[in-house]
Amino acid sequence: MARAFQIKVSFNMQHINELPAVEPHLRGDLAIWIFILAELLAFGVFFVVYAFTRARHVELFNAAQLGLDRNAGALNTVLLITGSWCVAHAVAAARQDRQAIAVRWMAGGLCGGLAFLVVKIAEYQAKFAAGLSMDSDTFHMFYFSLTFFHFMHVVLGVGILIILLFKLRAGAYGSHDAHGLETGAAYWHMVDLAWIVLFPLVYVMH
Amino acid sequence: MKYSSQAVAKPYFIAALGLFVAQILFGLIMGLQYVIGDFLFPHIPFNVARMVHTNALIVWLLMGFMGSAYYLVPEEAETELHSPKLALALFWIFLVAAALTVIGYLAVPYATLAKITGNDLLPTMGREFLEQPTITKIGIVIVALGFLYNLSMTFLKGKKTAITTVLLLGLWGLAIFFLFSFYNPHNLVRDKFYWWWVVHLWVEGVWELILGAILAFVLIKVTGVDREVIEKWLYVIITLALVTGLVGTGHHYFWIGAPEFWQWWGSVFSALEPVPFFAMTLFAFNMVNRRRREHPNRAATLWALGTGVMAFLGAGVWGFMHTLAPVNYYTHGTQITAAHGHMAFYGAYVMVVITMISYAMPLMRGRAANSNKAQVVEMWSFWLMTVSMVFITLFLTAAGILQVWLQRMGDAPMGFMLAQDQISLFYWMREVAGVVFLIGLITYLVSFFVRGEDKAA
């Protein structure tokens, strides 16, 4: 995923083309990729269950979906995608030993993640104030379950980004070794990917 | 054996195997009672035989875990055990307490046992698997604390490895979750809710950490594969186990009166619980394939590989079969449950303890591995026990499917006892398989005494 972002931005960022040729290899630790696949499996199962349940309660789901705050959802999508963009830049900069720039990009990614959490909490508060909860009906059970499950992953992701930020500032990553950085970044991109599926599925599709 | 204090594991292993025999004898008694209802009545009624069978299993597995820990922690930490004397003292306390408890189950009516052990002061009796008198439970806590203190001091004194870290995490977790056996809410829903915090969070939670650590230890020893590789696999496996198993507790909350969302959460997360077991199987086979040495203890290697496979089948596959709420609605509390339970416990925990005993016992007796003759006998016992367990499971699965069909589906569901009559053939077949299992167990015990030229290191 980091590589994909690199290719995308190469149109705008000349210096990325100057990266040394590298043999294809898995960016980030194998262990994190196994973990990522397991997480995506968990999200995937949840999404499939949602889809099948929706097919059996189309009217309820359509009606209840109208009550969701689509703007908050869209804003959160932008925040996460931008955050991922920043994290990808941070990795690229670190691999070119541009420490200070990498730190700034990583801080940007972290801000995106934190902002996501703030928007989400506000969204939940509005729902709770309206008397809605997991027990309200099947749609809201899925809405709260899916978004809360994702929320917890964003929290973990934010924690990882904070660790990466501190380690970047301490000079732990560079062209010599960006393994840990890429491992953490891969996890963050997974969190972003899960939301990119969740948002259209739960908030938009009807 | 690198450190002399590792020898304290021996009595634990011997007692464990003794209790294993007791467990199987009482299992066979019950198997017969399924089809000859008043067998040994009123001397050993079914419910008493059941308590002895299940409690003996848990106690012998705990003894197995303790022996395994006492053996592997000094070796991993590269230092002697903090207090071998304490380990031996706790062994006798545990054994005597267990023996007295079983005598209590057999000798007096349960209500009398409750009265004479002062259950009304702090009531903890009367729940499945937690039938022990409160004083026994307190004894278990004291033994556990002493055991954890001894190992933790050893751990802190010496080298810290991923294996000992994971093992101790699992063992501390085991002790902490056992405390919930003292929590007995008045509300029946909450009672059942927290009961699973002992049972599920043990066998589908912290016990998996213990299993992973022991398996990793034996695999490092018999394959010689790089520690880093094995440790990384161990971390992946326990992460998968916790991430799926913790919320997976919800698959016990479908029908007890808990909120309905548990039917969704429990189904989704518990459906993923087979994943760490699958990873464990891949891990074991992969390590053996990549081995850098031909360890003379081929029997222990066989047990290690078998643990992965049988745990995946029994816990993973059979567990998955009845874990989804729409299926569980029909199969809950039937012979399907018994089928899963037997293969899961055998595959995961019985086999990992035997793996450790198979690996460590020869070393504690002064050789790297037993003679060829002894190992062949041991491998016979592996196949006898494992194949007979597969048949026990298949017969109980068949019984369960028929039971569900007759008793819970269709236009004219049958009552419980009538349905039991219809499935009695499968109970007879199960009993035969159970006898073969006992033969396998006896064969295993015999293998300890087969002579021949033992293997040097």
Features:
heterodimer; A: 206 residues; mainly alpha; 7 helices; 77% helix; disordered N terminus; B: 457 residues; 16 helices; 0% strand
Account of the 3D structure:
The complex is a heterodimer of chains A (206) and B (457). Chain A is an all-alpha fold and 206 residues long. Chain A has helices at residues 2-9, 30-56, 58-65, 70-95, 99-129, 138-169, 179-204. In chain A, helix 1 (2-9) packs across helix 4 and helix 4 (70-95) runs antiparallel to helix 7. The relative contact order of chain A is 0.17. By secondary structure, chain B is an all-alpha fold. Chain B has helices at residues 9-35, 46-77, 84-107, 110-116, 134-157, 162-178, 188-223, 227-248, 261-271, 274-289, 298-321, 325-331, 335-364, 372-408, 416-422, 424-447. The radius of gyration of chain B is 22 Å and the shape is globular. Chain B is built from 16 helices and no strands. The chains are: A mainly alpha (206), B mainly alpha (457). Chain A binds chain B through residues 30-31, 34-35, 38, 41-42, 45-46, 49, 134-135, 141-142, 145, and chain B through 232, 235-236, 239-240, 243-244, 259-261, 264-265, 267-269, 271-272, 275, 279.
